[in-house]
Records
---
Amino acid sequence: MKDPIVSCREYYCYKLQIRENFRSILLLSGRLLQQFVVDMYVKIETSRLDYFRSKQQHIRSELYQGIVDTITLGETNASNVGKQIILPSSFIGGPRDMRKRYMEAMALVQRYGKPDIFLTMTCNPNWQEISNELRLHEESQNRPDLVARVFRAKLEELKDRLFKQQIFGKVSAYVYVIEHQKIGLPHAHFLIILQRDWKLYAPESFDEIVSAEIPDKNTNLHLHNAVVKHMMHGPCGVLNPTNVCMKKNGYCKSHYPKNFASSTTVGNDCFPIYRRSDNRITVKVRGHNLDNRWVVPYNPYLLATFDCHINIEICSTITAVKYLYKYIYKGHDRIAFNLVSEQNNQQIDEIQQFQSARWIAPPEAMWRIYGFVVNEMYPAVYSLHLHLEDQHQVTFRANEDLINVLNSDRSAKSMLTEFFALNRVDENARTLLYKEFPEFYVWSQQYKEWTCRKKKTVIGRIITANPFEGERYYLRILLNHVRGHLSFEDLRTVDGVVAPTFREAATMHGLLQRDSGLEDCLHEASLYQMPSSLRRLFATILVYCNPTNPRELWERFEQDMSIDFRSTEDSMLTVRMQVLRSISFTLESMGKHINSFHLLDDDICFDEDQFESREIDDELAVEIPEEDTAASEILNSEQRHVYNSILENVFSNKTATFFVDGPGGTGKTFLYKALLAAVRSRKLVALATASSGVAASILPGGRTAHSRFKIPLDTDEHSMCCVSKQSAIAKLLRVARLIIWDEAPMSRKQHIEALDKMLRDINDSELTFGGKVIVFGGDFRQVLPVVRKGTRQEHVDASLVSSYLWPTLIKLRLTENMRARLDPVFSEYVLELGNGMPPITIDETVKIPNGMLVPYEDDCTSLDHLIDVVFQDIHEYSINISAMMNRAILTPKNSYVDEINTLLIHRFPGELRRYYSFDEAIDASEQSVMEDFLNTLTPNGLPPHELLLKINCPIMLLRNINPSEGLCNGTRLICRAFD
Ligand SMILES: Nc1ncnc2c1ncn2[C@@H]1O[C@H](COP(=O)(O)OP(=O)(O)OP(=O)(O)O)[C@@H](O)[C@H]1O
C-alpha cells in the first residue's frame, strides 16, 4: 500500500491532548491550525522535512483560500460550544464550489450517459493495518492520523481494482467524493459510468455484480462473516425503534426491512429490486435474528477483499442521475449554535448570537493536513469562458494603471476570443465546437493561447447562462451548435446575412422555435382588450413566457398597444416612448428591466422630466380611505405612542428612523394606514412600500420596495439603487416626508443599505437615510430573508439586524394583539411561540395543546378528518365565499399542498374542469415516454401539469403579475367562469 506519510503521533498527542474519542470536539480557529502546522513542521525529524515543507505550503494556501476553516479536536461540552467560539465567516467555504463541481459532473453525464454503478466505501476502524499500529490499550479513535492514512491507502487500492484492473468492466468516467460524517469516520462515494459495451442493462448482469443475500456459512465462511459484520442493516423498526435510521413517522430512512424477491428486477426507483430469496438463512445481529431482507447490497469480491462496509448499487433508471450527483456533492456538515447573551435576552438581540461553523472531525482534519484529495473526477472537466464581445473579465493589480491594463494585448484575450483566433489559422480547429476544443487543445493562462494537447483526456463545458441573461444565453446556444466561426460577427452571420443579435442568428439557424402560441394569444387579446390591458399582457408574456423573439412580438403588436396614446399625441416617437414607458412600469413591478428584452436596437432611456410631475402627482392623488383617517381616533395606547413619536418628527422636519416591532395582529398595518392618512391629508408625500407584493397591496398606494426604490435584485454590499440624482424618482424621494417599509425583516440587509446609500446621495447628506423619516416595520418571528438551504446563522446574517443600520434605528414595540382580542389564550400561546419560549421544547419542536390537535390515526383517515374540521361545510362555501376566506390548511411541503388541493376540489360542489399545460413535442415517438416522466415533475417555479377547477372555487395567484393592482403572489381569487 502507498503510504508516504510520517507519523507525528507523539507530537500532536502531547500538543493537543487528544485523549477523547472522535465525537469530542474543540473548535480551533484557522489561525491556530496554521500555528499547529508550523509547530509540527519544526518538530518533525530532519529526514522528513522536505515532505512536510511541501505539505505546509499546501495547507497554508488552503487556509488563505478559506478552504480549511475550522478544525475540531478535543472535547465538546456546553461551555466551550457556548462561549469561546467566534468563526470568521470567510472560513465557511463550500457550497459554491460544490455547485460548480455538480455542473461539471452533469457535463460528464451529457457526454458519457447516466452512471451505472454507485459505490460507497466506509472506513473500518478495526482494520488490521490500524490495530497493528496501536499501543497497548490505545483505541483507533485516538489515532485520527492512522485512520486517515489507512483509509486513503485502501481507497487507492480500490481505485486500482476498479479503474486499472477494471473488475466491473471498462470505465469511461467516474467521480468520487470523500465525506466525513460528524462521528468522524471517512467514507468515499463513487459514481461510475461504464463504456458503452460494458453497460449493465439486464437484471442478470446486475446479479453478476451485486448480491443482497447472506452467503452460505458452510461454503463461504469468510464472506458470510464479512456480510454479518459489515452489511447487515439495523436492526430497526419494531425490533429497534430508536435506531439512527428511524424517521419521526416510525419508518426507516432506507426502507428496511426490504421485501423478499425471488429474482432481481429493474423496478421504478433509482435502484433495482435485488434478489432476496426467502431461504430461511438467518444471522444474529444485536440480539435479533435477521434474514435476507436486512442485507445491504454488496459485491462479494470487494467485500471479501476490503473487509469493510462497501455498499454497491446499480443505477437502473435515469431518475438516479440527479439524485446521486446531488447526494455526493451535498457539501460538508455544518453546525449552528447559539451564544446566549445573559445580559440581554430579548428575542431580536438573541437572534444575532447564532454562530454557524463548519464541522470537521479529527480524521477529516488529518485528511486535510496531509493534503489528500477530497474529490476527483475523470476525465477532468474544463470550464470554458462565455462572454459577449469585449465583456470578458480582466484581472489586474490594484496599483496598475487602468489605461495600460485596457490597452494591453493580454487583456484583450480570453479563451473565447482565442478560440476564434485559432479558427482563423487552423483548419482542424474549425471542425470543432467550442465545447470540444479542450479535448484537442490546451489553454495556457500564462500565455493566453490554445496549443495542441498531447495526452490526458479532458472534456469541455461552456459555463451556464440563464435565458434571462438575454444575448449571452443565445451566444451559448450558437457556440454549442455551430462550428468554424472566426469572430463574434461571423457567429451572427447566417447565409451571408449578419443578424443584429445572437438571438436572431439562433432563430435563423432554426435553433429556436417561433413564438406562434404567444403571437396567437396577443392577437386574440388585441381583438377585444383595451390597449392598457394588452400592454400588461405583453409585459406578463415577456416575464413569464420567455418568448424567443420579444422584439418580433413588440414590432407586431406595437400599433395595437398604442391606440390610446395615439389619440392624444402627434409624434410617433413620443407615442412609442409612452407605450414603452407604460410597459416598463409593469415590468418594474415584476422586478424586470425593459432593456433586458432588447425591444429596440439601442437601450431605451426615458426622458425623466416628462414623468417627473406625474410621479409626484400620482402620489398626491392616492385616495385616503375614510376609515384610515378615523383610525387615529381609536389607536390603542401603544399604537398612539408610536403614531405620535413618528408624526412629531415628520411635521417638525426632523431626522429619525424607526423600527416598529410587533407580532402578527398587533395592528402594525392599521397604524401605517393611520400614519399615511395623517401625512397625505396635509397634502404631503408619504410613500408606502413593503418587501412583498401582498403586503404592498394592502397599503393605499403601496408598491414593493424593489420597484419603488429601483433596488437591484442581485445585491452585494456595494450595490446601489438604479436612481440617478436627476431622475423623477429622486425628485419624488426628496419631497417625500414619510417613507414606510413594511415587512422589512423579510428583506436582505443589502437592499435596505442600498436605500440608505441612495438617499444620502440624492439628498447630498451624510445623515442616515439622507435625513428622511423612515419607518421600518415587521416581525422577526415571521419570515426572514430567503437564503437557499441556509443555516439559521446565514438567515440572521442576511437580515436587517446584522446591518450597520440596525443600531441607528429607534425601536418601538407593539404587544397587544388586536386580531386575537377575543381569544387571549391563543394570542398568548402564539406570542410565546414566536419568542422561542415554551411551548418550544428543548429539542426545538413545538408542543401543540391537545385542544388544537386532530388525532392521528393513519395518513388517509386523519387527512379526511382534518379537512372535515377546517372546512366543515364545504357545500356552503360556493354561496358564502367569505366563510372560505378565513380558513386554510398550511403544509410544510408543496407536494402535500397538491395532495390536499386535489382532495378538496373533488369535494367542492360543481362540475370539474381539467386544464393541462401544453408542450411542443419534438418527436411523436419520444413524446409519450418523456411526457409521462416530465409531467410528474413539479420543480420550483413550474406550474403543475394538470389544473383542476370548479366554478366559485377559491384560487391563489403564485406570481407577481401586477402588484400595483393587487395581482401578486398570494392574492386570492375566485374562479367565476370558464371559457
Ligand atoms: N386600534 C385598533 N382598533 C380596532 N381594531 C384594530 C386596531 N388595531 C388593529 N386592529 C385590527 O386588528 C387586526 C390586525 O391588525 P393588523 O392587520 O394591522 O395587524 P398586523 O400587525 O399588521 O398583522 P400582521 O403582522 O399579521 O400583518 C385588523 O383587523 C385591524 O383592523
---
Amino acid sequence: MDQTRLPREVVYRECHDERAVWEAIKTLQVRGAPAIGIAAAYGVCLGIKSAPDDEQAFFQRLDEVASYLASSRPTAVNLFWALDRMRRRAETLRGQPLDLIRKALLEEVRAIHEEDRALCHAIGRWGESLIEDRSGILTHCNAGGLATAEYGTALAVIYEAVAKGKRVHVFADETRPLLQGARLTAWELKAHGIPVTLICDNMAAEVMKEGKVQAVIVGADRIAANGDTANKIGTYGLAILARYHRIPFYVAAPSSTFDLQLSHGGLIPIEQRDPREVTSPFGIPIAPEGIDVYNPAFDVTPAELITAIICEKGVIRPVNKETIAAILGRALAGPERAQTVVK
Ligand SMILES: CSC[C@@H](O)[C@@H](O)C(=O)COP(=O)(O)O
C-alpha cells in the first residue's frame, strides 16, 4: 500500500525490481521499521531474479543488491537486520543450485514476513497488561499495522487492550513534518473503530497537564544495547513531557529493532531529510524561499526516560543493558549479532 496516498486513497503499488523497492522505501511509500525490513528483503528476491548463472557472479550480485537496498534509509536497523538475514541464508547454501538458493531466499522473506505478524501479536499481548481500563494513551508517528506485517507495535498494545474489553482513548500526535500521525495513525485507528483524537505535536504538554493521558506508547527504529531509543523526531520531547507529568512512557518494538552492537544511542545514525519536507509540506509552500532548514527524521530518547520496553519476549523494565540482554536472551557480544551491511 502506498502510504503517501493515505488517507485520501488506498492505492497498491507493485514493485518489479529492486530499484522500485529502493524508491518506495526512500519516498516513504512503505515506511515503519519492520515494514521496510520486509520490503527490502523482498527487494533482494527481485534483484537476484536475473542474476548470472555463475555462483561467484550470483553472490556478487546478491551483495550489490543488498548493499544498494541498505542505502535507502539509515536509521531503522530492521532494514539491515532483514538484509543480513537474507545474505546469511544464502551463504549457508553455497554450492547448491542457484535456483534452489533463489527459492530458499523467497521462503526466507516469507518467514520474516510471517514472523513479524506473530511478533506484533506477542507485543500486543505483553503490552496490554500495562494499560489500565479507561486510559488516555498518547502515541506519536505511526507504529501500527501499516508500519509492520500486521497489527503494529505500539498500536498492537492498544488493539489488544481494546480486545480485552478495556476502554481507551487515543491521542494521535500529527507528527510534523510528514504527518504520519494525522494521515496514518488517525486513519488506521478510525478504521478499527478505536476512539482517537488528533492533536498537533505542540499540544501534547497541555493534553497531559489536563490529565487526559495515562500512558505514552511509541514504536522504535533502533534501540541501542543500553536502551537508548531512536524513533520519529518529537519522541524525545514527549518522553521529557511524560516524565514531568509522571506519566509512564513505553516503547514497543520487536527484537529485530535492537542493535546490540551499539553501546548507546549517540552512535545511532540519524537520517537527515529533504528541507522541502519542512518548507513545502505536500507541495504547499509555507516558509520564505531559501530559508535555512534542519530536518532530522529521528531523535534518540535516553533509556532513563523510558519506563519499559515491550518486545515479543516480554516487558523490559527497568531499561538498561543487563535487563535488555537478559530478556533478549543473547550475550551482548554474541555470535548472533547483526552484521550490518551499510550504516
Ligand atoms: C513499528 S514502526 C516504528 C517506527 O518505525 C516508527 O515509529 C517511525 O518512527 C517511523 O518513521 P518513518 O519515517 O515514518 O519511517
---
Amino acid sequence: MDFISTRGTAPRLGFCDALLAGLARDGGLYLPESWPQFSAAEIRAMRGLSYPDLAIRVLSPFVDGEIDEATFARIVRDAYESFRHPAVCPLVQLDHDTFVLELFHGPTLAFKDVAMQLLARLMDHVLAERGERATIIGATSGDTGGAAIEAFAGRDQTDIFILFPEGRVSPVQQRQMTSSAEANVHALAMGGNFDDCQSIAKDLFNDHAFRDRVALSGVNSINWARVMAQIVYYFSSALTLGAPERPVSFTVPTGNFGDIFAGYAAKRMGLPIERLVIATNDNDILHRTLQSGTYEMQGVVATTSPSMDIQISSNFERLLFEACGRDASEVAGYMAGLKQSGAFTLEPSTLETIRGEFDAGRASMAEIDRTIATTLAETGYLLDPHTAAAVKVARETVSAAPMVILATAHPAKFPDAVQAAANKRPELPAWLGNLMEREERFTTLPSDTKMVKDYIERHSRALR
Ligand SMILES: Cc1ncc(COP(=O)(O)O)c(C=O)c1O
Ligand SMILES: N[C@@H](CCOP(=O)(O)O)C(=O)O
C-alpha cells in the first residue's frame, strides 16, 4: 500500500516512511492510495474480538507487511495495556438510541491516547530498526500535547517539542505537558492561539533543509498514522451495536477534523455508517462551511472547550481531496486561496458530496453548559465540555440509526468549566496521583518560527 499527498506533488511513500514523514513535502497530507475494503462477512467475523485484536485486523492492510505481523501485533497489544478499562473504548448507553463512546480511559484522559500510545511505539520500532533518531514536533490546543509527551517521554530514539498556547489550555492539560522530568521532553509555551502553533509546526515541515537536518516528524493528526489508529473505535462501537446488519451514526466534537475523518475512513472501508455529524463550539468554521459552501477564517475565540478552539482545520483538506474525486489541483487551489485571502469557496459538486455524508451543528458556551447540567440531571452522566457540544448537536440531528457520540475527554480535565455548568466538581482519578502538585518545567517563546527552529536545533539529538 502506498500513501499519496493531497497536493499531488510529494513522493509516494510506504507505511513506515509515511509514519515518519508527518506533513508531505508539498505541504499536503498523506492518504492511502486506495481504501482497504472489508466485506459484510469480514466485518461480521470481527464480532467478539478484543480491542487490540480488532485493531490488528483493521489496521494491518495499511501496514501491509512493512512491519512483520508478529511484531505489529505485539506493538498493538502493548499500546492498549496502558488503558484503564478492559474494553479500552467502552460504550455507555445514554438513552434508548443514544450512546456515548468513552475514549478517555488512556493515561492522559483524552481520546488522543488511543492513537498516540500506538504511534509512539510504531515510530520507536521503525527508528530503532533503521538506527535513526527523530525530532518530534506537535502543536496542541491541550490534549495532543499531554498525550504525546506521555507516549514519547524517555524514549531514546526521539526528542519531542510541544507548542502550546500559553493561558489557553486547562490547568490539568498544562500540568500534563509540563511535569515530565524526562530530558527528551520540551514543552514550549507560545504566544498566540493553537492555529499559530500549528502554523509554526507546518512552517518547520515546509523548510526542507531544516526538516532534513533535524529529521523532523510530527504527532498531530496531519500524520496519517494518527487518523488510522482512530478508525478502530468506529469499528468497535458499530460492532457492539450490531454492525454490519445495523448501521449507526456518529456525532464527533470537532476541531482539527482528524477524529471525524477517521469515521469517514471507516465508512469508506465498508463499515455501515449512516451520518457523520460535525459538532463545533463557537469556533464554528466547519459548521458555516457546510451551510454556505465557503470556508472563511474568523478570529479564534477562547471557550470552555479549549481543545476545539481551532479555525484552521487541517484534516478538512483530506476530506476535500476525497470529495473532489482526488483532484490534487482542486485541493491545491483551495489551499492557495486560504493562504492568500483566508477563505475559499467549494465547487458545488464538492460541497454536495460532503453534504451527502456529513451534517454539522454548533454549540455555544451557554448551550454546552446547559447540556452538561441537563444530561447530569436526566441521566446521571457527567459530560466534559467537548463531549457536551456533541451531545447538544446530536440531539438536533435526525438519524434513523442509533447515534454514537464520541466522548473525547474525561470531565476532570476541565473541572472548573464542569463545576460552573453542573455544580459538581469532577475529581481526577486517584491513579494520576499528585499531578497538580508536580513541579512544572517549560520554556516560554514568542510565536516566531525562527525562535522555535533555533530552540530545536540547540536541543535535538537527531541533528545531522
Ligand atoms: C477533547 C477534545 N475533543 C475534540 C477535539 C477535536 O478533535 P479533532 O481535532 O480530531 O477534530 C479535540 C482536539 O483535537 C479534543 O482534545
Ligand atoms: N485538539 C487538539 C488539537 C490538535 O489536534 P490533532 O488531532 O491534529 O493533534 C489538541 O488537543 O491538541
